[in-house]
Amino acid sequence: MELRVLGLRPAASALLVTLFFLSAARPPVFSASPPRYSPDWASLDARPLPGWFDAAKVGIFVHWGVFAVPAWGSEWFWWHWQGEHRPDFDQFVRSRFPPGTTYADFASRFSARDFQPHEWATLFQEAGARYVVLTSKHHEGFTNWGSPVSWNWNSVDTGPHRDLVGELGAALRERNIHYGLYHSLFEWFNPLYLADKKAGFKSQYFVLGKTLPELYELVTRYKPDIIWSDGEWEAPDTYWNSTSFLAWLYNDSPVKDTVVVNDRWGINCSCHHGGFYNCQDKYKPGTLPTHKWEMCSSIDRRSWGYRSNMKTDELMDTSSIIQELVSTVSYGGNYLLNVGPTKEGVIAPVFQERLLALGRWLKINGEAIYESKPWRVQRENGTARTWYTSKGAAVYAIFFTWPEDNVLILPSPDFTASMKVTMLGVSRSLEWHAVPGRGLEVTLPSTVPSLLPLQYAWTLKLVGVK
């Protein structure tokens, strides 16, 4: 960020660096027990993933920050405008805001005036989310809590004058929803980061004075269930002190036994190191991975932050969301679906509609999603577009195309004489027959799909499969 954003004159830059070093983060100690994990990837990667995360399956991502003020292009507005100097972004600012407007000026317009954390929590609960991840700080450097190392560039000292991180966390935990915090390791225009970058990341002014103090404070103050790291791609994990931080997190922090982290901790860490893997945005492995993973997706296909100029055909419809969820869970992943609130703190009605539709589907079919495990076959290759999950003695077949003759063919399950087939949301058992060379033929309810509780996808529960 520019020095003027920090409220300092350029002449004070040398003093700024000195003060940063003097305030270098030292991890607080909460445990007297000997460390179980050492600050190296071999040890850290051996830590078992807390079971709640795999069981949860469904999460909501929330991208919210100063970028919601211009609300145009994407959450990367500042970079496109003043990093890449794109003329369309410059024209947008000149046509919408007073002459001489800087990105820092947007902060006072980030009001969160209509932010009702309990309403958000209720919406996310009705959407079927078992966890929520909020951006505590995006690449713009603005923190959604009163970070002591952010000066006036935070939601308590300017804009909302509220602790957005704390308020949402309290509301979610009243509903037993796990709370995660997204945190960007780097900041596009922070002078300390740019100085470290210019030095080839041989210095660590930014890490010691900004990144680590923020991470330690987020953990000790808010006790998150997830730390969703990002912004790591320009520097190695040794620059970020990632392994030292994670060793503290797993050994001594107040969430050492419950917290989970992703894989974005430095160059070459993605899809290699961390509690669960994101690999890349909207990652779809196509086969069953050997490591726990998460697919993050956004209802607005073109942005993670709110855009006032989004169009209907740029948004995911409910059927597409459910297909992504089902395929992700069938391959053993979690599904993290994103919405971007407005600068006032409103989740747009079209986003609410998608979330509530997902929740209605999960109320009937969630048995096949939550706490499920991948089956030996993840999907059928036939026209039925059928995916499988399992739980205990049950195998679930989730299909997206209703057959015209009301007979669904399942080639993969090996039947037993005592096998029972039901449809979630329908009380009675279904008839089935084994046909050599074809597999199971299941006779579906003799009604048009539109008369069933939901029309996007349906789930058969098979008990007694070999």
Layout of SSEs?
Layout (H helix, E strand, L loop, with lengths): L12 H10 L18 H4 L6 H6 L1 E5 L14 H7 L3 H10 L20 H10 L4 E7 L26 H10 L4 E7 L6 H8 L6 H18 L3 E5 L6 H4 L1 H10 L8 E2 L31 E6 L19 H13 L2 E7 L9 H17 L20 E6 L2 E6 L7 E4 L9 E4 L8 E4 L3 E5 L14 E6 L3
Parallel strand pairs: 1-2, 1-7, 2-3, 3-4, 4-5, 6-7
Antiparallel strand pairs: 8-9, 9-14, 10-13, 11-14, 12-13
Helix pairs in contact: 1-9, 4-5, 6-7, 6-13
- The average pLDDT is 92
Total helices: the number is 13
Class by SSE composition: alpha/beta
CATH superfamily descriptor of the largest domain: Glycosidases
Q: Would you kindly provide a written description of the structure presented here, covering whatever features stand out?
A:
The chain is α/β, with parallel strands linked by helices. The protein has 2 domains: 10-363, Glycosidases (TIM Barrel); 386-463, Golgi alpha-mannosidase II (Immunoglobulin-like). The protein has helices at residues 13-22, 41-44, 51-56, 77-83, 87-96, 117-126, 164-173, 191-198, 205-222, 237-240, 242-251, 318-330, 349-365; strands spanning 58-62, 131-137, 178-184, 226-230, 260-261, 293-298, 333-339, 386-391, 394-399, 407-410, 420-423, 432-435, 439-443, 458-463. Helix 7 (164-173) links the parallel strand 2 and strand 3. The radius of gyration is 24 Å and the shape is globular. Mean pLDDT is 92; it is low at 1-15. Residues 1-31 form the signal peptide.
